[in-house]
Amino acid sequence: MGGTAEEYWAGGEYHPTDLDLCPLPSPSDLKALEAVGLRKRGRHWTRDDLGVAVEFPGSGDGIERTVALTVSGVSVLMISCEDLYLDRVRQATVSWPQEDVSVDAALEIALTNYARMEWDYVAGCERPVRLRVSSAP
Predict the structure, then answer these.
(1) Which domain holds residue 34?
(2) φ/ψ bin of 130: left (φ > 0), alpha (ψ from -120 to 50), beta (otherwise)
(3) pLDDT digits (tens, 9 = 90+) for 29-54
(4) Is residue 128 part of a domain?
(5) Could you read off the pLDDT of 58-74 as tens digits, one per residue?
């Protein structure tokens, strides 16, 4: 989730290939997507004249908090920087000990938003990641 949200919260430049939306679409949402000319191809909804595809990666169960924003005159709900940080930490630790780009994203989000992040919320949502490092030669 959240390349566009990552760009917003980390302030870096991100070149999305898709736009992640949550929660999963309802039957009326699917009809609305088709009504504006989007067609489902694999996991993405596309239209030939659009530069990015739309994807519904999941239910949004990991998103506890959102922030209401206006982007180019359009009102949207964006995942909070805290929940995006937690998402990137989870992604980064799934493939341990191999490093994942999510490590960099989590660090960027944390550093860019350090003063405004609610660290008590973060600490309460995420159990510490305990890694076992083998000392075998």
Answers:
(1) 3-123
(2) beta
(3) 889 999 999 999 887 888 999 888 88
(4) no
(5) 656 667 788 888 877 87
Structure tokens at 100: 């994942």
* Residue for token pair 């949402």: 29
- Within-domain flag for 100: yes
Q: Is residue 135 part of a domain?
A: no
Cα 51 to Cα 15, 46, 120, distances in angstroms:
11, 9, 39
Domain count, the chain: 1
6-15 contact pairs (CB < 8 A, 24+): 6/84, 6/88, 6/105, 6/108, 6/109, 8/69, 8/78, 9/81, 9/84, 9/109, 9/112, 9/113, 10/105, 10/108, 10/109, 10/112, 11/112, 12/108
pTM above 0.85, yes or no: no
Q: Is 60 exposed, middle or buried (0-12, 13-18, 19+ CB in 10 A)?
A: middle
Identify whether 33 is part of a domain. yes
